[in-house]
Amino acid sequence: MNLLVYTLQANIYALIILSIIFVNFRKRADLTNASNRFFLIMLKVVMAILILDSIGISLYGLAGQPIHFLLILLTLIYYLLNPLPSLFWMAYVHYTIHRSEKRLKKLVAVALLPVYLNSILSIASIFTGWLFYFGADNVYQRGPLFVMVPICCYFYIFLSFVMILWNRNRIRQRDLLPLLFFALPPFLAGVIQALIYGLAITWPALTISLLTIYIFIQSRTMNTDHLTGLYNRREFDYYLEDWMNWHSKKKQLAGFMLDLDRFKEINDNFGHNAGDRALINMSEILRKSFRNTDFIARIGGDEFVVVLEVDDQKDSMGFWSG
């Protein structure tokens, strides 16, 4: 079978996987969190690249000047987007480590240089063929400077890998391996593509990386509070909606809302680190005080909610007094 057909099939499978992740993630993720926004952008850009690549493959070899111009336009956009997933991966890693958007902006200001270089070469290739060109038969060909594209992309992935290793003590142990694994599929895909000309599997490989991050990190963090590890406000809303739609009418819900007295004074007098420690201690007390089946969430600054399934109101009051 033609290698382009294999590439097209891989693109379609990757698009299906990313579409499922995107729909679920877009619905449930807290987009006020920067790492969630970066992950969502990576999903969008990789999906766009896969669509552009698939359309281009479908048009290769078709005759006509309009097809020629369309192929050039699609390929130009494709090349302009190429470094963005790895750039936002670097931003994702940096924010995961430092939790500072202000600090990240300083890094990105310098790190954008490869993106600018890629953009200049991509636009110039329309006239020079440096990165790509199409012959009279409308078949795609790599230009003499094509190697600059993977260099720009892998630069960010390599930098992110170094950042993870250098700051491994600041990363949660359960997140370390998935973050390190991210670089492996695109690296292996790059090696395979170098050995087998005409086979393009970098973006399906990157889909495996994104799927790994989604399963082992994002699916957990999008419904939990990053500080305490309890459920967040959004998951609380989903829990109530789900319970009302699916649970037995024989059971009732009992809820308790709690907050920390004089929490503002803790922050003002001892600093926000002490305030964070107080919130973490509160979450640990709640976990030890209630059953594993009870729903515990942090829904605001110092506000917590506990939801229990009970038989009646007397049962809930007895549990609380106990």
UniProtKB/TrEMBL annotation:
GO terms for cellular component: plasma membrane. One of its GO terms (molecular function) is diguanylate cyclase activity. Residues 251-322 form the GGDEF domain. It comes from the Bacteria. InterPro entries: Diguanylate_Cyclase, GGDEF_dom, Nucleotide_cyclase, Rev_trsase/Diguanyl_cyclase. This is Putative diguanylate cyclase AdrA. Its EC number is 2.7.7.65. The keyword Nucleus does not apply. Keywords: Membrane, Nucleotidyltransferase, Transferase, Transmembrane, Transmembrane helix. Pfam families: GGDEF. The chain crosses the membrane at residues 6-26, 38-63, 69-95, 107-133, 145-164, 176-195, 201-217. GO terms for biological process: cell adhesion involved in single-species biofilm formation; negative regulation of bacterial-type flagellum-dependent cell motility.
